[in-house]
Write a structure and sequence with these properties.
Layout: E1 2-4, E2 16-21, E3 27-33, E4 38-44, H1 46-49, H2 51-55, E5 62-66, E6 73-78, E7 84-89, E8 93-100, E9 104-105, E10 113-114, E11 117-125, E12 131-136, E13 142-147, E14 151-156, E15 163-168, E16 174-179, E17 185-190, E18 195-199, E19 205-209, E20 226-227, E21 233-235, E22 239-241, E23 244-251, E24 259-262, E25 268-273, E26 278-281, E27 288-291, E28 293-298, E29 303-307, E30 315-317, E31 325-330, E32 336-341, E33 346-350, H3 353-356, E34 358-359, H4 362-373, H5 397-402, E35 447-452, E36 458-461, E37 493-498, H6 517-520, E38 581-586, E39 589-600, E40 603-615, E41 618-627, E42 631-636, E43 640-645, E44 649-654, E45 665-666, E46 671-676, E47 682-687, E48 691-696, E49 701-707, E50 717-722, E51 728-732, E52 737-741, E53 746-751, H7 755-763, H8 777-782, H9 787-790, H10 793-798, H11 805-822, H12 826-843, H13 846-857, E54 866-867, E55 870-871, H14 872-883, H15 890-905
Parallel strand pairs: 35-37
Antiparallel strand pairs: 1-33, 2-3, 3-4, 4-5, 6-7, 7-8, 8-11, 9-10, 12-13, 13-14, 14-15, 16-17, 17-18, 18-19, 20-21, 21-23, 22-23, 23-24, 25-28, 26-27, 26-34, 28-29, 29-30, 31-32, 32-33, 35-36, 38-39, 39-40, 40-41, 42-43, 43-44, 44-45, 46-47, 47-48, 48-49, 50-51, 51-52, 52-53, 54-55
Helix pairs in contact: 7-11, 11-12, 12-14, 14-15
């Protein structure tokens, strides 16, 4: 051991009250009195321990000096990561310092330039008196301060200067504070002759210890207590035993106070454990020992160093200073001990590995924590029993656990309409115990077209309502059943057109008659957004409507008319020509289809006319084309018109000019559905004989060719949609829905009468959020099925305690994840991972939680690979964020959180060595040889 006392480490001969070594071991900070102010100095440690560096003028001694405090600085403490330095003073302030780029200047008016520049990043104001001591929590989440105002304040280190808690209970000046390294407790010591243990899960008082301090008479300026790095022992300052001053050992197990460090002749002022757990081979037995190292300073100007494996101190140094020792600091992984005194001096003690032992590696320390607490390095979780209080071991989880766990929502709440919808009409209801039964708010249809015939009858042109909720996007699909896509205006109205000459047609479809341009001009692009309401019919026994109409939002207003004309319902699965005159509108473009408009010697021609709506009352015809077979279905996009004819031919026309984009193509049977992708790059057709084709209009090639025979055995397609990625969705008349995976060459089930699917849709929020086919295709498609709405609400309640419910929901969610991955829906992919975390947090088992998380981690040590645009770390974090709100998952959360942090930026750790024997206390271990230097011994007293 060597003792060094650099005379150049000084505060201009003023008192130094605190000292702390940086975690990196290359610098240290001192705090104390300056010239007419408090002073904080950051020193270079290398010149202190290296004589050559001390003599080298190019090696700076002072790295930075801060004179911002208005009164004497009482404590300085580095954060665990070394990025922040906290200082407190008699000016009632706490300052948080952070390093800035470049060097720094001295105090105001000084020309001295320092090697480093540290700026005050935050000033914490909350104490009503001098602040005497500071302590950072594990992981630097909080910082605790104590003051002569008898309080301890917990500050949120993530959101300075926010106060998390003010702990009141002491009746005297609070002079010392320290965190349990396990994160379960915080301890404070006061002049009121008590040491108090506080719980970190709510910062309430847990234990008050008074016995060792009852005989204490005089006071000290500070009472710096310390917790052992293994969390097993708390050592206090200024206790008494048999009339002599001691450093009291308080065991975590039962808070027993039957051992202490004795020998100092005056009150103990500060104690400080080495940050590492040490190990060595016992000299006589050659057995491996684990122990902690502690330094004790007192008012008798002497310093002692103890190993908990020995009965006596390792070394004692008398009269090290001319005044009381006020603070101590160990290098984090080294053998250096710094001490400061009220006489303004600093001493450095250099030990060797033979003297102190070897620090445990991180893996060995993890193994020790695992054995002691069941958790690597941080926590142990004792599962709570009914009626007992659960103590949160990890203090950072306290905030999260105060928040009520709620099911995640697919669509952000800010995007949902603020006004709730009116109560639905009697009929099948959707029920969820945690969700209101009110239907989600939806926009009412703002404009419809009404025509009056010569006989006085009113005819309402039916409107096709797309699944899209995006301006200018094409409809989901259209079949030849008299529907058309229309815009909506800002005011609710019905356009009335007088028709004196045309008789009422006798066709089974409602006729979309020619409308006056003065009325059509009101259908402009700024009103394209439509609601998701549509009633489909079939000319066969009635089936449940896939798109039930919503009630009007205002009961005083007349309900918007959505149904078709009376008469025989159309056959959705059979291609039949459109009415003689049919309109389609998209943005500023209106396309009119006139079947049987021209009779020739070769047959009847169909006319297709394109109009551009530029200004009010200005509807300009821009193109016209002829088709030699009646049109059975037509669809528009912002670029293209798709016309499908009865003879099986299809045509892609430019919506601006009417010119063909692709040559006319023939399919084996006429189309019953056609649609575009929202971005207008893809077009799809579904025919009577179940042929499905998707074309890439930009590349002018086929994108997908298949059949849907596998899914229409018991029903027929009712609606078709195509995503931007070319993924088709088909909803059948019975409510089932499917999507096609090109990679798997199979139809994926998105909705069916399967009990697991029914339970999953019913137990989640599907159908109760605004629909958005472009952003959330899977959930929007699933919301149209009758499975959830037909389920009896009482069935859910009756089965709420059934054992099958949780595994069924997990199976449903995991299947949803796989579907979203196949259809390339990233927002839904992440949402269902979050929903998986919610389900695991509320009803999962430890085995299932570990299975899911281990599956995401995989075997690789780095998890920066992406899935659907998200890193695996992001998905794991989403699940962990759900788990952290439930106290029962605290241990697993911390375990996987640590693993996530390690694997996200570190290489795999080395093999974990065998765990040595437990720690031992003074009097319990091997006794050192009696030949030890007599000058290094202290007088000892029995406990």
């Amino acid at each position: 051991m060597k003792i060094l006392q650099p005379d150049w480490v000084t505060h201009d001969d003023k008192s130094i009250f605190s000292i702390d070594i940086h975690p990196n071991g290359d610098k240290f900070a001192t705090g104390g009195q300056g010239n007419d102010s408090g002073r904080v100095v950051i020193w270079n440690l290398k010149p202190v321990i290296n004589e050559e560096a001390e003599k080298d003028k190019n090696v700076p001694r002072i790295l930075c000096q801060m004179d911002n405090h208005l009164a004497c600085v009482n404590c300085v403490r580095w954060s665990g990561n070394g990025q922040m330095l906290a200082s407190c003073a008699d000016d009632r302030l706490i300052m948080i310092w952070k390093k800035s780029a470049g060097g720094g200047m001295g105090s105001f008016g000084s020309t001295v330039k320092f090697a480093e520049h540290w700026r005050c990043a935050a000033t914490l104001r909350g104490h009503a008196g001098d602040v005497l001591d500071l302590a950072w929590s594990p992981a630097d989440v909080f910082i605790a301060s104590c003051s002569v105002d008898n309080t301890v304040i917990i500050w949120d280190a993530k959101e300075f200067p926010q106060i998390l808690q003010v702990m009141k209970g002491h009746t005297g000046l609070v002079k010392g504070v320290t965190w349990d390294p396990v994160g379960k407790f915080i301890a404070s010591q006061s002049d009121d002759k008590t040491l108090k243990i506080w719980k970190t899960h709510d910062f309430s008082l847990y234990k008050t210890i008074t016995e060792p301090f009852e005989e204490c008479g005089g006071t000290t300026h500070i009472l710096r207590l310390s917790w052992s790095p293994d969390g097993q022992y708390l050592v206090s300052a200024h206790a008494m035993n048999g009339g002599g001053p001691t450093a009291q050992i308080i065991e975590r197990d039962g808070w027993k106070c039957d051992k202490d460090f004795v020998g100092h002749r005056k009150a103990v002022t500060c104690v400080r454990f080495h940050n590492s757990i040490m190990k060595r081979t016992a000299p006589k037995t050659n057995k491996s020992q684990q122990y902690c190292c502690l330094a004790v300073g007192a008012r008798d100007k002497s310093l002692s160093v103890w190993l908990t494996a020995l009965q006596r101190p390792l070394v004692v140094i008398h009269d090290l200073f001319q005044d009381s020792i006020l603070d101590l600091s160990w290098s984090h992984n080294g053998y250096i001990l710094l001490a400061c005194s009220g006489d303004g001096k600093v001493s450095c003690l250099q030990f060797s590995a033979e003297e102190l032992g070897t620090p445990l590696s991180e893996d060995e320390k993890n193994s020790l924590y695992q054995r002691m607490y069941g958790k690597d390095r941080i926590t142990d979780l004792a599962l709570i029993e009914p009626g007992k209080e659960l103590i949160i071991e990890n203090p950072y989880l306290f905030k999260a656990m105060q928040e009520k766990l709620t099911a995640p929502t697919l669509i952000p709440q800010s995007a949902a309409p603020a006004t709730p919808a009116k109560a639905p009409e009697p009929g099948p209801s959707v029920f969820h115990p945690a969700i209101s039964q009110d239907s989600p708010p939806q926009r009412k249809i703002m404009k419809q077209i009404e025509t009056k015939t010569a006989d006085g009858k009113r005819r309402i042109t039916p409107m096709f309502i797309p699944l899209n909720d995006d301006v200018g996007e094409p409809a989901v699909g259209s079949s030849g059943n008299g529907q058309f896509s229309s815009s909506t205006a800002s005011k609710s109205s019905i356009i009335t057109v007088e028709k004196a000459d045309e008789p009422v047609p006798s066709t089974s479809r409602s006729s979309s008659n020619v409308v006056d341009q003065d009325d059509i001009d009101k259908l402009t692009e700024d009103t394209v957004k439509l609601d998701i309401r549509l009633t489909k019919c079939a000319n066969q026994p009635p089936t449940t409507a896939v798109f039930p109409p919503d009630p009007p939002e205002d009961p005083k207003q007349k309900a918007p008319i959505q149904t078709m004309d009376t008469g025989p319902p159309p056959v959705t699965g059979k291609a039949t020509p459109l009415p003689k005159t049919t309109l389609r509108v998209h943005g500023n473009y209106r396309v009119q289809v006139q079947n049987d408009s021209i009779k020739t010697g070769f047959g009847v021609l169909c006319k297709v006319i394109g109009h551009l709506i530029t200004l009010p009352k200005d509807d300009k015809k821009i193109w016209e084309t002829l088709i030699g077979s009646p049109v059975v279905c037509v669809s528009l996009s912002k670029k293209t018109v798709l016309c499908c004819s009865l003879d099986g031919s299809i045509r892609f026309l430019d919506i601006h000019t009417g010119a063909p984009i692709l040559p006319a193509m023939s399919l084996t049977s006429p189309a019953v559905h056609c649609c575009f992708s929202p971005n207008s790059n893809l077009g799809a057709v579904l025919t009577e004989n179940c042929t499905l084709r998707v074309w890439d209009l930009q590349e002018q090639c086929v994108f997908l060719s298949g059949t849907c025979r596998d899914i229409v055995t018991n029903s027929y397609p009712s609606v078709m949609h195509l995503s931007d990625q070319g993924v088709p969705f088909i909803i059948l008349a019975n409510g089932s829905s499917f999507t096609y995976s090109k990679k798997l060459e199979s139809w994926l089930i998105t909705n069916s009468a399967d009990p697991i699917m029914r339970h999953g849709l019913f137990g989640s929020r599907i159908g109760l959020t605004p629909r958005n086919i472009k952003a959330y295709p899977l959930s929007t498609i699933q919301s149209f099925g009758p499975s959830a709405s037909k389920l009896n609400p009482m069935a859910f309640l009756e089965n709420s305690n059934k054992a099958w419910q949780t595994p069924a929901m997990l199976s449903f969610i995991q299947n949803q994840i796989k579907i979203t991955e196949n259809i390339n829906s990233p927002d839904e992919f992440r949402f269902w991972h979050t929903m998986l975390g919610f389900q695991l947090a509320t009803h999962g088992t430890e085995e299932k939680v570990r299975q899911i998380l281990d599956g995401l981690f995989g075997t690789a040590y780095r998890i920066d690979g992406e899935i659907m645009g998200f890193t695996k770390a992001t998905l794991i974090r989403d699940i962990l964020d759900q788990l952290k709100t439930q106290p029962k998952w605290q241990r697993i959360y911390t375990e996987y959180d640590d693993q996530l942090k390690m694997r996200s930026g570190m290489m795999p750790p080395d093999d974990v060595p065998e765990v040595p024997s437990p720690l031992v206390l003074p009097g319990e271990g091997e006794e050192e040889d009696e030949e030890a230097d007599g000058d290094a011994k202290m007088d000892t007293a029995a406990p």
